[in-house]
Amino acid sequence: MDMSINLFLYLFLSVFTFLLLRATAAAHLRRRKNRLPPGTLGLPFIGETLQLISAYKTENPEPFIDDRVSKYGNIFTTHVFGEPTVFSADPETNRFILQNEGRLFESSYPGSIQNLLGRHSLLLMRGTLHKRMHSLTMSFANSSILKDHLLADIDRLVRLNLDSWTGRVFLMEEAKKITFNLTVKQLMSFDPCEWTENLMKEYMLVIEGFFTIPLPVFSSTYRKAIQARRKVAEALGLVVRERRKEREGGERKNDMLEALFEGDGGVGGGGFSDEEIVDFMLALLVAGYDTTSTIMTLAVKFLTETPHALSHLKEEHVEIRLRKGEVESLRWEDYKSMPFTQCVVNETLRIANIISGVFRRAMTDINIKGYTIPKGWKVFASFRAVHLDHEHFKDARSFDPWRWQSNAGSASSPNVFTPFGGGPRHCPGYELARVELSVFLHHLVTRFSWVPAEPDKLVFFPTTRMLKRYPIIIQRRSLFDPCKE
Ligand code: HEM
Ligand SMILES: *[C@@H]1O[C@H](CO)[C@@H](O)[C@H](O)[C@H]1NC(C)=O
Ligand SMILES: *[C@@H]1O[C@H](CO)[C@@H](O)[C@H](O)[C@H]1NC(C)=O
Ligand SMILES: *[C@@H]1O[C@H](CO)[C@@H](O)[C@H](O)[C@H]1NC(C)=O
Which first-to-last residue range defines the signal peptide (predicted)? Predict the structure, then answer.
């Protein structure tokens, strides 16, 4: 019932916006000699949305882009999710879009997502406030903080999680637990406990809300997500108030929350309000959780399917582990002596494209490569299209970590590999994510061997994920106790 009302309204609104936009687009074209990038707006009502969704629900969505690139070139016009959109598969154009964030383009999310994120989320901030908060977030996860504090927590929490594994394991579930526990620890110094587990349950409902059709009022998933968001915000609010009290008593902790207390920002200046802090922390949870846990899962999937890469990786980590003994934690020097692991990390990011690209809105008419993007239009800078382009990466669609060992593998120009975006919104968690993945792989390959428990499928819509959460059957092995080998 719920669903059919949704669909009806969605179609109705689509017809309406489509006709409106087609009329304005035509007017634009008449008024100027400028031309739109070539392409087709697809069917009335829904544009090319259905083609896009059905492609991204398979393991090989590439034809959607390939067909259009071969027909129209690297920049083309399409019509998806209710709006005409200029799609870029061109690295220079992508760079131009990312670098001109806030000047010519601005990030743009549907209203339903904005409600879930909260008004004060970094993802929604603009201008100088964004700049200040972005650099604050950067300094929370920069390499010296990682080295001095975060690495030890990451090592400990990854081990703790792996200790509980037996028999059959849903890798995606475990990776989610790890990243959630880690983020909570990093944000507010909590170790895993009943409180964090309850928080995670509510939080999962919020995440589900992100992927409903953006028509909030009628979707029950969305309603539940909004309720859950309120609960998560309340729980976090309580923590913030407690910590303020502790600070008055002179107590200081070393985490993101402390950095926010010390920050002199806020809309009115003079420190952040509790609401601002809660929104901000929630946004960090959202941005870091799904992405990092998915990349952990997919790295294991690709390695499992590429045994010689897995055995090369294992060699690297066994050597480190034998040097350190069974229980010693990884240190920064260890992390820095994993060259092949870094190739695996890059190759996984390149092939998986967890964030396949970013949507922006043109703030003014923009001329690029002989085309005009009309003011107000949506633009999609596709990282995926570039990462999987044979022109930029040899044999681009196969998993080949060794390509990163030669300079040729790391692509012809610096704009070509952008898993973490770029410009003013470049991902502040880029190094944190790399360290988390590397530490996870270290403990995984030195402590277990595994086989997939059943066939599973990688899909890309509504998010990049394994349909069955990647179940594996594991076997503990010990480098130090040959009887367990
Ligand atoms: C493999 C893991 C990750 C990937 C692939 C990834 C990718 C990205 C990308 C592409 C953007 C740019 C979005 C845009 O331009 O609109 C971004 C932004 C962001 N990421 Fe990540 N990310 C990852 C992990 C993390 C982690 C662990 C954190 C936690 C600190 C994080 C926090 C953020 C935040 C706060 C933003 C918004 C920045 C802004 O708007 O100024 N990300 N991420
Ligand atoms: C990292 O951030 C801290 C503040 O949190 C700052 O003192 C330090 O200089 C930064 N380090 C680097 C390498 O940027
Ligand atoms: C946190 O980690 C512990 C230990 O690995 C695990 O038992 C628990 O389920 C995790 N909790 C959450 C909320 O992720
Ligand atoms: C991995 O990619 C980054 C760019 O994101 C690059 O700086 C680094 O050198 C690459 N690592 C390897 C081993 O090629």
Answer: none
